[in-house]
Amino acid sequence: MLLHSGAPTDDQLLQGALLYGREDTSVTGLWALRRHGMERVPPPQDVHILIPHDRRVTSMGFVHVERTRRLPRPHFRGELPVAPVPRAVIDAARRLTDEDEIQAMMAESVQRRFCTTEMLARELDQAGRTGTALPRKALVPLLAGARSVAEADAWRLWRRSGLPPGHWNVPIFDANGNYVATADFWCDEVAFAWEIDSYRHHANLEDHRVTVARNARYVAAGIVVLQTLPSRLRTEPDQVLRELHAAFRTAQARPRPNVAIRRAA
Asked: Is the pLDDT of residue 4 over 70?
């Protein structure tokens, strides 16, 4: 019960949900991810809590109750017990219906090193079947190395292209061991880089300077690079495919430069 008039604060909603679930309850899903500091998550519609499987508590009002035999060891954010990131991501993903939202959320959790794709895959395997079809589909490009919704779109388009397989988000070095760039996509067979560059990334002078410097290093190393706007992956996929094939032929026609990828140890 609130001791003041007006809408409850976020903390009051979360504390109320935890009191409703009683002991051994933790917050999961979107609210948990927000408490972990993730940003690319949809606004929560309710508070998703996890309780022991044998407790007779049902969903009510703003509280979505999930009984589970797999209670995670909670992480405390302030005084609030929240599920670990991999569990919270999958619990949230199972209740979402937009693949882009799911993919963006998963990608952020990996890109910002809250967890790994392998941790998400393990969590999905333990979650059973209910609500996991879209999360499983969204995770596939990320397991291949994509790190954003746009890169997932690019991954799907490259698979359609019939061109040789390659690597996502790998660092490239020249013959002297000097760093060239971390390519969004790299076809090592012909030393071809594909960069998915958005207008937003070039919105300020510093980002534009970084991109120009990167492209200069590509040229100096003899690497053929194609830049594609993320929006075109969906609005002009056939044209982008033609550009990919043309760039690949250009890379194939010249002697391969002495450059190499270097994976993390």
From this structure: no
